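Let's sit down with a protein and look at its sequence and fold side by side. Go ahead whenever you are ready, and we will take it from there.
>
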Amino acid sequence: MRRRLLSLSVSIPLALGLNSAAHADEGMWMPSQLPDIASQLKAAGFRGNARDLAELAKPPMNAVVKVGGASGAFVSKDGLVLTNHHVAFGVIQYNSKPGRDLIQDGYIAADRAAELPANPDYRVLVTTGFDRITDRILANATGKQGRAYFDAVDAATKAAVAECEREPGARCSVANMYYGTDFYLVRQLELRDVRLVYAPPNAIGNYGGEVDNFVWPRHAGDFTLLRAYVGKDGKPADYSPDNVPYVPPAHLQVSTRNVKEGDFAMLAGYPGVTFRHRMASEFANQIDWQLPSRVAVYQDMIDVIEGTAAKDEAARVAYASQVRSLKNNLKRAQGELDGLRRSDAARVRREDETAMFAWLDKQADAAATRADIAAAQAVLDAGVATRDRDQLVGLIQSQTQLLRAAITVQRLANERTKPDAQRETGYQQRDEVLITGQLKQAQRRYAPQVEKALLTELLTQYQALPPAQHVAELDSVFGTTSAQLKQKLDAMYAGTQLNEEANRLAAMQSAMHADGRATLAAPKDTLLKAAGALMPALLRLDEEAKTSAGELLRLRPAYMRALIDFRKSQGRAVYPDANSTLRVSYGRISAMDPRDGVHYRPLTTVQGIVEKHTGVEPFDAPKPLLDAIAKGDFGTTAEPSLGTQTVDFLTNLDTTGGNSGSPVLDAQGKLIGLNFDSNWEAVSASWMFDPRFKRAIHVDMRYMRWLLSKVYPAPHLLKEMNLPAE
């Protein structure tokens, strides 16, 4: 199958800054851009051919995969996938229950028959194509505004995706580069049968917990091994005992050499979203409102879940993954806020933008560009009026299980009245397998008392908003006082049958057929009834959001072109903000001096595990680990210069959320580390890059090898990865 990777179009100035001076650690580059910066790569220490990195159908890029919304890599010819413990945490939690706590105890599949199926919506995606289709996406958008512009781009996107997915097993998407300036069709092989192979105990995979999260020095073995399966015909298939391991086109070889400070390092993965090219007003909004409000509401949700589930082991296990995600996002938000304030980011960005406008005013097309930028700013200003409401409504939907299931079913019923090409993204026929998977697993992540308590907290905050931010349907369904809210939630959850998987799937089937939709219009189930009553409001809010999104999609390119040309005139590097597409960053294993008198050595060792150990979570190291450390039998995985076993290491690689699980490669392309975190001082790098503070934290592959050899042995997996049993 022929795969193509097209470089940036020469008709727009997106690659113009590539050859300018830049820090080697700065930039999340599209693989297609790497040949243009080959000299910088070589100067940094890369020993391969930069053109090979631009080919998605060649190693090492075709071994790097998207896993569960983050990153990972194939590490054997039989579909073995290496990713983070926290990326696979939902899989571990899904297979846990009272009496079999894989979170606490870990898991080692003795053979392939013992490998455990992941939750039904868990996916491994292998990128096989990345083609520029800007002209196709924007062809029918010219001259349109607002919702019409959004719809034109949306229709072209859906048509391109539908055409791409005629290829069996393909999962396709369109990536928006440079905020509406350029568009790429991303083609991925969707592997749907994923199984748990090896997970260390939580006290290794998450050693230090939230105390150590985003902190250096770290001592976490944050890794897990999964395996991707396909049907006997070699094509992607749903889980079946008859499926066979997927044979990837290539896999990474885990390095057996030692690494040290100053060594070249390169990372490939799927960073989520960065915002470094946003307008100055958006930086100010992030610092003044978004991050403080996010910190507050996330803490409220954590307190409610933990307090409600404290005395119920089943509820605690059910919500373990959600709580961990909330804690991670909370700490990230606080770190981002602290970092942006420390860097005085709002002032720096405002001054940079002011300088850009001064430069722009001297250019021939200044008036038209200025008009578009002013119009974009007006759209952003309008969104401030409802930002509190919109945040809470989003959380009410995303942080619940049964209510979210009911809303999903009612939205599916609404979309099913339209031709497939006109349905909302997420509710087309291509999405029904994922919807089914989400509905199937809901009860494993649900306890009624917890969901009601969570809704009570969020809706109480909503009720306290000014009247102008209230929505009539929400007020009707949930009431406007605390007493009404309690009464309505009690009745809703007492009268629902959606806690049973069969009932959720039956409701989904009703949504997909005309006679069933008539039943959903006046359902007996109380949650389905509530979701149906909320639907007009949710559709109306969605309409408003799309109108604003369409305008920004139309107007932002003016700002981006001005910013790119301005930075080019200064000799500053230009690279696209991250958007969950495959990116590469490069740099070195690097120490750090975060503040006066403090020096961060770039390697940690098992002695740090012992030093931190208190016997109380999150510093309760397992006895087999402590015994192995005391024994001191490290073999060839020990670092000679330190005389002991390493655990984690630090680089100056440019990363953000989504890069969790990204493989870290040496100058020869061998796997030396697994990315899992950033340091506290660099959490704000999603908005502002500061080379003084930006570091990334990785599991040293020598630690993984030692654990698999000496502590929680899995010699069969070492053999599969062509590694020696130490």
Q: What stands out?
A: Residues 526-569 form the longest helix (44 residues). The chain has a mean pLDDT of 94. The radius of gyration is 25 Å. The longest strand covers residues 182-191.
